[in-house]
Amino acid sequence: MNLEITKHNIFVEEAWSFIMPDHEKWSKEIKNIILVENNKEIHNHTTIIPATNVKAKRTAWDSHFRYPQIRSLTSELSNIIQDWIKKENFDAPTLQVKDCWINWYDKNNHAVPHRHGVHLSLVYFVDVEDSKADFLFIREDRYELIRKENNETFHNNMKYVKVKNGTVLMFSGDSMHSVTPNLSNNTRITFAANYVVDYLANTENKTEKLLNV
Ligand SMILES: [Fe+2]
User: Fold this and answer.
1) What is the 110 CA–ligand 1 centroid distance (Å)?
2) Residue at 187 is within a domain
3) What pLDDT digit, counting tens, does each position of 156-204 carry?
4) DSSP string spanning 123-189?
5) How far is the CA of 125 from the centre of ligand 1 (A)?
6) CATH no. for residue 152?
């Protein structure tokens, strides 16, 4: 029977990536912060925040207020993102950094599946090539047919993203993701930031705007 079966792509989830300009410089700055933080931990005045979804070490959520280097990094990233927003014509007049932090994963450290719950999240893969862990996007679907030649998918609801040192990956903060355990003895370093859209920041009369909602 010559039956025509039509395929419909129902949902497409987008993610974007670019290579961070001046990656070597930012990498050094971030590694210096980790050195200082690890040293503080050894001498019992740690500011490393206890693990949550990320079962590794990390700096505080408000790292852009604690470290001038991170403030410069987030401002550089914000400029890149604002240009990209214009190009893509997204309705996002102003993006504010909600929080940001550095993660460093030693052996067997990992991140359990989680969401950030914001408009836009980014992960800057600072030093990941010498360690052995993968960033996965996870879809909460259960059963589906997978083509035999699909060798990029570990499981039918996980998508591995190939990144290198310097890659910045941007995605909806509502996308579920995880990091597999670091199977190497080398530390894996990433930087994460969350952004929220502020529609009021650019308006002339914020009170009036609020009342008209
Ligand atoms: Fe995350």
Assistant:
1) 11
2) yes
3) 678 888 999 999 999 999 999 999 999 999 999 999 999 998 877 666 6
4) EEEEE-TTS---EEEE---------TT--S-SBTTEEE----TTEEEEE-TTSEEEE----SSSPEE
5) 12
6) 2.60.120.620
Ligand 1 center to residue 175 CA distance, Å? 9
Question: Both tokens of residue 81?
Answer: 């993102």
Q: Which two tokens stand for residue 188?
A: 């894996």
Mention every residue, 6+ apart, whose C-beta is less than 8 A from residue 165.
23, 27, 125, 126, 127, 128, 129
Query: Residue 149 Cα, ligand 1 centroid: separation in angstroms?
Result: 29
- How many H-runs (helices) and E-runs (strands) does the chain carry? 4, 11
pTM here is 0.86
Calculate how far, in angstroms, residue 178's C-alpha sits from the geometric centre of ligand 1: 7
134 Cα to the center of ligand 1, angstroms = 12
Specify the higher pLDDT residue, 145 or 34.
34
Cβ atoms of 143 and 155 closer than 8 Å = no
Place of tokens 């800057």: 124
Rounded to the nearest 5°, which phi and psi values hold at 40?
Answer: -60, -40
Question: Ligand 1 centroid vs 213 CA: distance in angstroms?
Answer: 32
Instruction: Indicate whether 2 belongs to any domain.
Output: no
Residue 207, in any domain of the structure: no
| Dihedral sign computed on CA atoms, order 108, 102, 165, 159 | positive
Specify the number of domains making up the chain.
Answer: 1
What is the distance in A from the centroid of ligand 1 to the CA of 89? 26
Whole domain around residue 84: which residue ranges? 19-199
Residue 101 falls within a domain, yes or no? yes
